[in-house]
Amino acid sequence: MNYQGDRTTGFASPAGDNIEGTIDLMSTALDLRQPSRYPVRVEGDALLGRAIRHGDILVVDSAVAPRAGVVVVASVGDELRVCELTQRAGEWWLRSSSPQASPVQVDDDTDVAIWAVATGLVRTDV
């Protein structure tokens, strides 16, 4: 006799209505086929407060509009940084979670450009 899952006896599981679909990371967070999305490897521990560690890979998207509270890739002068974008009293700031690093104001007088917004995180060292 061959077992057929649709022909069982007894009663169906009450949890059957709560079964989730499969998780497709490629179509949501990690789809790098989009031209505006690319991976960035994090160097340093400036964002440990956001649980972003040295060696992590951020998936960033240059088509996503920056807003307060997101992690961004920005250029400050000749240096690329991964920072949190914050807003205080109507002014925009780039800051890390390191208490030693001072925030950088984002305005017309500073050489700051926001390149992309982080949309996902890949950690290979668990």
UniProtKB/TrEMBL annotation:
Check the record and name the Pfam families matching this protein. Answer: Peptidase_S24
Q: Which SUPFAM superfamilies match?
A: LexA/Signal peptidase
Q: Domain Peptidase S24/S26A/S26B/S26C spans what residues? A: 8-118
On the tree of life, the source organism's domain of life is Bacteria
- Spell out the InterPro entries in the cross-references: LexA-like (IPR039418), LexA/Signal_pep-like_sf (IPR036286), LexA_repressor (IPR050077), Peptidase_S24_S26A/B/C (IPR015927)
Name of protein = S24 family peptidase
User: What species is given as this protein's source?
Assistant: Gluconobacter cadivus
